[in-house]
Write a structure and sequence with these properties.
The protein has 111 residues and is α+β, with helices and mostly antiparallel strands. The chain is built from 3 helices and 4 strands. The protein is elongated, with a radius of gyration of 14 Å. The mean pLDDT is 92.
Length: 111
């Protein structure tokens, strides 16, 4: 089942909107801005909707989807773009996972 409380942010090419979950508003503004730019550029490039959400274990999941009749949506491009984002933004995404594990899940990280 989809848990909306774990959604970090989302961007929609259809509505031309960006959503940021207020639950995570304690994140620095620079991080929120970077997420917004990343998500909006993604949906402008390949279309559809991009959602960043946390799994139960704290890992960050990037998911893209499109309306069934959207002929302009680039499904192959979206998968490639997600892999590119995961590589280019690796440090940011790992920091967000650590934040979620410590602040939201209350895990003690001693490594």
């Amino acid at each position: 089942m989809f848990d909306e409380s774990r959604v970090l942010c989302a961007s929609s090419a259809y509505e031309q909107k960006f959503f940021f979950n207020k639950r995570f508003e304690r994140l620095p503004e620079s991080i929120r801005d970077e997420l917004k730019i990343m998500c909006v550029l993604f949906t402008e490039d390949v279309g559809g909707v991009l959602t960043l959400s946390f799994e139960e274990d704290g890992s960050l999941y990037l998911q893209t989807e499109a309306d069934e009749g959207d002929l302009l949506y680039d499904e192959i491009g979206s998968s490639l773009k997600i892999k590119q984002l995961q590589a280019e933004k690796r440090e940011l995404l790992e920091a967000l996972e650590l934040y979620y594990r410590v602040v939201v899940l209350g895990q003690n990280i001693e490594e």
